[in-house]
Amino acid sequence: MTMADICALCGATEDLSTYTVAPKSENILLCQTCLAGVDGQVTDAPHWQCLHDPIWSTTPAVQVVAYRVLHGLSEAPWARDLLDIAYLEDDVKDWAEAGLADPDAVTHRDSNGAVLAAGDAVVLIKDLPVKGAGFTAKRGTAVRNISLVADNAEHIEGRVEGQRIVILTKFVKKS
Fold first, then answer.
1. Exposed site from 80, 95, 124, 171, fewest CB < 10 Å?
2. Three-class SS of the chain
3. Domain named PhnA protein N-terminal proteobacterial: which ranges (predicted)?
4. What is the CATH number of domain 122-174?
5. pTM over 0.85
């Protein structure tokens, strides 16, 4: 058995199929369990803990598939944590994001480029005067349980000093 005879994600050796990692035409081998998760709706299960290794693979196609599956599992805290620490070269990350389910979806990113999700906690990185409220939201203020503005990737909403305000994503960092 060679390294080419195992599932690129979980290491299974039986019932393998070739999977083409779109939009490029590179192929990897996947077991039926991984193939079903990659092609369909992925749900949190112990099987996906195997992604701790392939996200760090030296093979870009394997990293792309692992990133996409982890992105589909972003409601699971362990998957979100793994996505936060994973490093992909810019071209590999662009490839991975090109194949995500909804290309028209708005992605909210903080000042460091980390993806923000509804319910996340962020910290202000600059003093922000709040128009109409008569106060300044100070740098370092934690804003918990944020909401995403659906049609604008640069806006989030959160509660600061009891007021619900709109905050520009370039002035926050994920905590």
1. 80
2. CCHHHCCCCCCCCCCEEEEEECCCCEEEEEEHHHHHHHHCCCCCCHHHHHHHCHHHCCCHHHHHHHHHHHHHCCCCHHHHHHHHHCCCCHHHHHHHHHCCCCCCCCCCECCCCCECCCCCCEEECCCEEECCCCEEECCCCEECCCEECCCCCCEEEEEECCEEEEEEHHHEEEC
3. 7-39
4. 2.30.30.40
5. no
